[in-house]
Write a structure and sequence with these properties.
Layout: E1 6-7, H1 12-31, E2 46-51, H2 63-79, E3 83-86, E4 92-97, H3 101-114, H4 119-122, E5 131-135, H5 141-164, E6 176-177, H6 180-191, E7 199-208, E8 211-222, H7 224-231, E9 235-236, H8 241-261, E10 271-274, H9 283-292, E11 300-305, H10 306-311, H11 313-325, E12 328-335, H12 337-340, E13 353-357, H13 360-367, H14 372-381, E14 386-389, H15 394-402, E15 407-408, H16 411-419
Helix pairs in contact: 1-5, 2-3, 5-16, 6-8, 8-9, 13-15
Length: 439
């Protein structure tokens, strides 16, 4: 067994599964060996304690509470030739050799006291999901089942991350802002190249804490970060907002041209496109509509940036009857929590959806309990009409759910969706009772 106090191996789930398989194999051999009677009486065997941190409320999963829980378990790891593993879910697993049942139950009691006010622990009906103790020598099979689930969940998580890396926006690389000559170079390259390899999809999903994300539709877009890397590395295409706005007009045209010739059957389903208002009356948009409108079984959502709407409101009004007749819905994009507060009735403005962008400031306000106004505004608009975008962390989703939102988009949602994981249970569903196996 590893001797680290807190085993920080990159894949602790693999170590745990290997040990569980060896102990199960050893137990099977001893069961068939007539000379093994009383072997456990001559020396206590292995035990494990699994602490389901993942299902606690977010404020109990912070670094401070995790370290306190580790301090309760570390002495047992030190004293009884054991290891304390911190799993990718945030759960803790203690493996020790020769410890008494009394010592393990004492540690379990201290963990229950530490998290006593958490709803998972405070409710007698659910607290049994928080912690379980295993005797690995007498009955190794229940622990083997847990180890297999941990390993499978980690494998799903790792695979999901690989699947969604292509839509994740990397941290901005240092680079010079795009200037006018750079824009000319990029536009020239775009006019003579196929952007199909730069087109990405990202789902907008309904989130329920106990179910995997349920996709409603995909946003289809040209990945600016991949475009930047492919055509003009070392230059930040978005640093100059006015030049970037010019670039998006050409990106609209190239994306529509690609979709017009595409035979992807998913274009018959619901999806969204983030376009400029002037694109809606262009030949490329009309050609796209003529090709796919009659094939669609569902409407298409057109996302428009608020700054574009304010600058081209009259042009939008002229395009609106055509869009409505051809079963397009509109989404007002580019909102933050402050600008959303000024919007009371999206329908009166002619929009079916609002897209709110997550910011760290929203998380800070959530922790300070200062989002009551935002929650009230969302209720007036309709939670089913507001999308929270840029959800690249659990904190973003927790904040959105706290203010009543239902629709989410972002990297964290991609991971959960690809792996079939829910916000809580799919991290790692705990065992159903607190019991010492084999005692």
């Amino acid at each position: 067994m590893p001797k680290d106090n807190v085993a920080m191996n990159e894949r602790p789930e693999r170590i745990i599964l290997d040990l569980a398989e060896r102990l199960a194999k050893r137990a099977s051999s001893l069961a068939n060996d007539p000379l093994s009677d009383g072997i456990e009486a001559r020396g206590a065997g292995y035990s494990a304690l699994f602490c389901n941190m993942a299902q606690l409320r977010s404020y109990h999963r912070d670094v401070g509470h995790r370290r306190l829980a580790e301090r309760i378990l570390k002495p047992l790891a030190n004293q009884y030739s054991g290891s304390l593993f911190r799993l990718f879910t945030g759960d803790l697993l203690l493996l020790v050799e020769g410890v008494s049942e009394v010592k393990l139950k004492e540690a379990a009691g201290r963990l229950f006291l530490l998290f006593a006010i958490d709803p998972l622990v405070a409710d007698e009906r659910t607290r049994v999901r928080f912690l379980r103790i295993y005797n690995l020598t007498r009955e190794p099979k229940p622990f083997l089942a847990l180890a297999q689930r941990l390993f499978e969940a980690r494998s799903q998580h790792d695979e999901a991350q690989k699947n969604v890396e292509r839509v994740r926006e990397p941290a901005p690389e240092p680079g010079k802002p795009m200037n006018a000559s750079d824009l000319v170079e990029v536009e020239k390259a775009l006019r003579t190249s196929d952007v199909e390899g730069l087109v990405a999809r990202q789902a907008i999903c309904v989130i329920n804490r106990d179910q995997p994300p349920q996709p409603t539709f995909d946003e289809i877009f040209v990945s600016v970060h991949r475009l930047q890397s492919a055509i003009i590395p070392g230059t930040d295409l978005m640093a100059n907002p006015w030049l970037f706005q010019d670039l998006t007009r050409l990106l609209d045209q190239r994306l529509l041209a690609t979709l017009t010739k595409s035979r992807d059957s998913r274009l018959r389903e619901a999806f969204s496109l983030n376009l400029n208002i002037e694109t809606l009356t262009s030949e490329k948009f009309l050609a796209f509509d003529a090709t796919h409108c009659n094939e669609r079984s569902q409407s298409v959502l057109v996302e428009l940036q608020m700054i574009d709407v304010l600058a081209n409101l009259s042009e939008l009004q002229r395009a609106r009857p055509f869009l409505k007749d051809r079963r397009y819905r509109l989404c007002l994009d580019g909102l933050n929590h402050e600008t959303l507060l000024t919007i009371r009735s999206p329908r009166d403005l002619g929009f079916d959806f609002m897209k709110l962008h997550w910011t760290q400031e929203m998380g800070d306000l959530y922790r300070a309990k200062k989002l009551d106004d935002l929650q009230a505004t969302i209720q007036k608009i309709g939670p089913e009409r507001v999308i929270l975008a840029h959800c690249d962390s659990e904190e973003a989703v927790e904040t959105g759910m706290a203010v009543g939102l239902m629709l989410f988009q972002g990297y964290h949602i991609d991971v959960l969706k690809s792996a079939g994981l829910s916000m809580s249970a799919a991290r790692m569903e705990a065992e159903p009772s607190v019991a010492v196996e084999g005692h």
